[in-house]
Design a protein that fits this description.
Blueprint: H1 3-12, H2 19-22, E1 27-31, E2 34-37, E3 42-45, H3 48-51, H4 60-71, H5 84-98, E4 106-109, H6 114-129, E5 133-137, H7 146-150, H8 155-159, E6 168-171, H9 183-192, E7 201-206, E8 209-210, E9 216-217, H10 220-232, E10 236-240, E11 264-267, E12 280-283, H11 303-316, H12 321-342, E13 349-353, E14 356-360, H13 364-377, E15 379-380, E16 382-384, E17 390-393, H14 401-422
Parallel strand pairs: 3-15, 5-6, 5-7, 7-10, 10-11
Antiparallel strand pairs: 1-2, 2-3, 4-12, 8-9, 11-12, 13-14, 14-17, 16-17
The structure holds pyridoxal-5'-phosphate.
Pyridoxal-5'-phosphate is lined by residues 113-115, 118, 141-143, 207, 211-212, 240, 242-243, 268.
Length: 427
């Protein structure tokens, strides 16, 4: 980025900005998995808008639907009034995504962020059960509004809230206490104990893979145990599929591999398919106890976003082919990352599911230096985990293998250089 642009940003934009620091360039165009900077550099995007761009930037299959909708003068904003765009979306989602999987849910369109959708899910669970406590998991992330951040683990995010965050009890996620400890059993013992000190929960809120928390992967049996525990204690079972849904782990929903049947499913990030803001809850019929207008918002179910969401469903989810493609590419990326890790002995580890993969550098400074160097070489990757020590790979699900391999080669070069530089200082 030119120095003058750097200065303009510093003068005009709040100090809270973050990605313009990690990726210091001005991005003027983007297509698929490539972002173009104003000074003509081609960057490989392994970040995908933190999971909001599963179908890549400016996917032309989806763009066509948006442009023709705009040209028709159909309503873009209509609060939550009925429009053909909304009905088409609900019909397509219901028949292709839900009925195809034997699922039955009602749709609740919430404000456009994942945080707002989680707020609505927690509020509804508390209303249904007339309880206040929520069980969430260490290292979970559910958004920045007060209710959602109360259910999120990150200490600095919590501290920034400035109020005491309450109403949530944290429990250990799968693998949190090492491979030998069955944390689902631990959670069960705690919740079933009449003198365990934990108020009966309104909901158990879980991610099947913790995205922000470090790409921590829960096993099928663990998720099933947590689901049946929720039933046994009369709690609503909520899967926050904001980041891992919409195909990220291979299937449309991240919990399909474990054959779960959540009471509430939370979707956002890649739901619109185009990076347009759109969030919703899928609610089981019997939980839909809302009174009209009890959770509202100006931007619910934006029609333009619904149009691209419908196009994404029609284009990618009518058959199993896309899922198989994601699984195949995910395995390829995982194998390549494991080979890179092996090149450095046993110091690094690789984990993930589908096309959500984490490369654990163990040392935060090394991860920071690696992603910085990767950017200089033309690859954009971000970090996650409690100390930001994990490099997080979330490429567009539509990426081609040639671009994947090119990006991973550059990542490996960056890692190797960062390794040499940090060896004497930090490790
Ligand atoms: C990103 C994210 C959220 C929050 O979504 P926002 O749109 O940023 O509010 C919630 N849950 C998970 C799992 C996420 O990854």
């Amino acid at each position: 980025m030119a120095d003058s642009e750097q200065l303009n940003i510093q003068a005009l934009e709040s100090n809270v900005r973050v990605y313009s620091r990690s990726f210091p360039a001005t991005f003027s165009r983007a297509r698929g998995s490539i972002m173009l900077t104003e000074d003509g550099r081609q960057m490989i995007d392994f970040l995908s808008g933190a999971g909001a761009l599963n179908y890549g930037h400016n996917n032309h299959g989806l763009r066509a639907a948006i442009t023709s909708y705009l040209e028709s003068d159909a309503p873009v904003h209509a609060l939550d009034m009925a429009t053909p765009a909304k009905l088409d979306f609900m019909k397509a989602f219901n028949s292709i995504i839900l009925e195809g999987r034997g699922l039955r849910y009602r749709f609740q369109f919430t404000g456009p962020t994942g945080a707002n959708a989680n707020e609505a899910a927690l509020k509804l669970s508390r209303k249904v059960t007339r309880r206040h406590n929520i069980i969430s998991f260490a290292r979970g992330y559910h958004g920045m509004s007060l209710g959602a951040i109360a259910a999120s683990g990150n200490r600095s995010y919590r501290a920034a809230s400035g109020v005491s965050l309450s109403g949530v009890t944290f429990m250990p996620y799968d693998g949190y206490l090492g491979a030998d400890v069955d944390t689902a059993e631990y959670v069960r013992v705690m919740l079933m104990d009449e003198s365990g000190g934990i108020d009966p929960p309104a909901a158990i809120l879980v991610e099947t893979v913790q995205g922000e928390g470090g790409i921590n992967v829960a096993r099928r049996e663990w998720l099933q145990s947590i689901q049946s525990l929720a039933k046994d204690v009369g709690a609503v079972f909520i899967v926050d599929d904001v980041q891992m849904g919409c195909g990220r782990t291979g299937d449309f929903f991240s919990f399909e591999f474990a054959a779960l049947s959540p009471d509430i499913i939370v979707l956002s990030k890649s739901l619109s398919g185009y990076g347009l803001p759109l969030s919703m809850l899928l609610i089981k019929d019997e939980l839909d106890v809302w009174l009209p207008g009890e959770h509202t918002g100006t931007f619910r179910g934006n029609n333009l976003a619904l149009v691209s969401a419908t196009a994404a469903i029609n284009l990618y989810w009518r058959s199993r082919a896309f899922s198989e493609e994601i699984q195949r590419k995910g395995k390829h990326i995982q194998r390549r990352l494991e080979a890179i890790a092996r090149g450095y002995g046993n110091r690094f580890s690789v984990r993930g599911r589908g096309m959500a993969l984490g490369f654990d550098c163990q040392v935060p400074e090394l991860a920071a230096m690696t992603t910085k160097k990767a950017f200089e070489k033309g690859v954009m990757v971000e970090r996650c985990g409690p100390l930001d020590q994990v490099v997080k790979f979330l490429p567009a699900l539509t990426i081609d293998l040639e671009t994947v391999d090119k990006g991973l080669d550059l990542f490996n070069e960056a890692l190797s250089e960062a390794q040499q530089q940090t060896r004497f200082s930090a490790i």
